[in-house]
Amino acid sequence: MNKLKKIKMLVMDVDGILTDSRIILDSSLGWKRFFSVRDGIGIHQLRKQGYKTAVITGSYSEDVRERMQHLKIDYFFENKLDKGPAFDELKQMSQLSNEEISYIGDDIFDIPLLKQVGFSATVPEAVEQVLKECDYITKRAGGYGAVRDLCQLILEHGYYSEGTT
């Protein structure tokens, strides 16, 4: 948990983390995903305490953009299958270092970021290669409160937690 004491930002993937990995194609040929309200509350609590939030996703979809706007995500990068350049840009924009950032992802595209950040996390149903790389595996599944679980951990032990600033 000592790694969490430096964390000032949470960076998240979308599919499999903020959602349960399912995508529905509706009758108007629009993509729809299921997001957890609990995750949104956790993100709101983080932001309220001074933490920054970011999303880097390979998705390029209106439903994702709408959800990120609603959550008031500080930094949003979409259509980024190679997440490295977006992560470098995020660090430059935020002026934060690797050890000040926590990242949660669940698939092979996330591994380079999981290896760089100060605190890495994933969900129980992540691919095996990801499970091996992470500091923490959430108690809840992606799309069912996994992000809220990590937010709570950061709120309890992170940089802006009581007694560490």
Keywords:
33% helix, six-stranded parallel sheet, two-stranded antiparallel sheet, alpha/beta
Tell me what the structure shows.
The protein has 165 residues and is of the alpha/beta class. It has a single domain, classed as HAD superfamily/HAD-like (Rossmann fold, 3-Layer(aba) Sandwich). It has helices at residues 37-48, 62-71, 84-94, 111-116, 128-131, 146-157, and strands at residues 9-12, 24-25, 31-32, 52-56, 75-77, 101-104, 119-122, 136-137. A six-stranded parallel sheet has the order 5-4-1-6-7-8, sandwiched between helices. The longest helix has 12 residues, at 37-48. It is globular, with a radius of gyration of 15 Å. The relative contact order is 0.23.
